Amino acid sequence: MDFEIDALIVGCGLCGSVIARELAEAGKKVVVWERRSHIGGNMYDYMDDYGFLVQKYGPHTFHTKKKELYDYMCRYASWQPYKLTCGAVWDGKYTPTPFNFTTIDTFFPPEKAAKLKETLKKAFAGREFATVVEVLDHPDPDVRGYGEYLFQNDYAPYAAKQWGVSPGEIDLSVLKRVPLRFSYDEGYFDDPYQVMPADSFTRFFENLLDHPDIEVKLGVEALEHLRPQDGKLLIDGRENDFPVVYTGAIDELFDGVYGHLPYRSLRFEWKYEAGDGLQPAPVVAYPQEAGYTRITEYKKLPVQNRPGTSYAVEYPLPYREGVQLEPYYPVLTAESQEQYAKYKALANQVPNLILCGRLADFKYYNMDQALERALTISKVLL
């Protein structure tokens, strides 16, 4: 490669693309390597054969509490308000998620439902929601019983399929991601900024990377060129001192010297039906179904007024290096985080190696968290 550059970015997802743009805006010449055939990472979307805009790697919406992050996204695309609604189905009944008072009315007899709603309002007075962990740990047996009912029917079977380990092994941060509501309010997020692109996520990335000092090279497997050795990061056998921002799986960069970190992958079954719709919400979990965890109906994400409906059935499976799979989610357990700490210590010995992103940081980032992390790294580099 041409070494007359100021930085190399490995990965063309949100973290890599934002850092590339920020460095280019500061007058740096940047090369981006991406092993896939497209930009945008897991946010990549495209028009399917039926005329629906679909997301190849699963559903994404942008949401944040921070105006400065929303404003940043607005520099590179137009956005439209979009409040994501989700649901779950078990015992043949549908309920919105996060679980709310509609959930209680759906699954409990009227008298018991009324009593439970009052008990929850008293137990969590002044609060709109709580995590299932708080409900499971509550001293009131009725509150705790409600948490156990939800855990047994939704959280536990869903987590077992999604993560491939028992729910007791999963880091509590994962279980806390979806709270319980103490009202009839619906909507997956409460953030003041909830949007979808007016055009597409791919167009957003095209605009973000459209800079004369950014060169994007697709179809490049960085691990065939990078090799950490004696505190240096060799590129095709040569030493260099410009920063290399790595957004891929950190264990693979170091040849799995401490064993491979656990990630979960996904297989999507793409389907089309001629009807007007499949399910009440765009994203619905099916904890009791064998194999698959959820279905995303893209006719509703964003709303697309055209005949028929395109949707993806999502099957989680373990990720294995060298197989044609994507490592989507780090499996966060006490053991895996200790293992990651060893890899992070190795990375810290290479002065010009910078880690950023869900895989490199081994963290479960939302899009706004990934954006904030990328902007922080950019400031450090500049």
How would you describe this structure to a colleague?
The protein has 382 residues and is α/β, with parallel strands linked by helices. The chain is built from 11 helices and 21 strands. It has helices at residues 14-25, 67-74, 101-107, 110-123, 132-136, 141-163, 172-175, 201-208, 250-253, 334-348, 367-381; strands at residues 7-10, 30-34, 45-47, 53-55, 62-64, 79-81, 86-90, 93-97, 129-130, 180-181, 193-197, 214-218, 226-229, 232-235, 244-246, 263-273, 283-285, 294-297, 309-318, 329-330, 353-355. It has a 7-stranded mixed beta sheet. Strands 12-2-1-15-21 form a 5-stranded parallel beta sheet, covered by helices on one side. The protein is globular, with a radius of gyration of 22 Å. The model has no long low-confidence stretch (mean pLDDT 94).
Taking pLDDT < 50 over at least 5 consecutive residues as the criterion, the unreliable ranges are none
- Global morphology: globular
Q: What's the N-to-C terminus distance?
A: 23 Å
C-alpha-based Rg, rounded: 22 Å
Helix content range of the residues, please? 25-40%
Tally the helices: what do you get?
11
Largest sheet: 7 strands, mixed
- Strand element count: 21
**How much strand content do the residues show?**
15-25%
> Which strands sit side by side, in order, in the main sheet?
8-7-17-18-19-16-20
Helix and strand content put the structural class at: alpha/beta
* Mean pLDDT across every amino acid position: 94
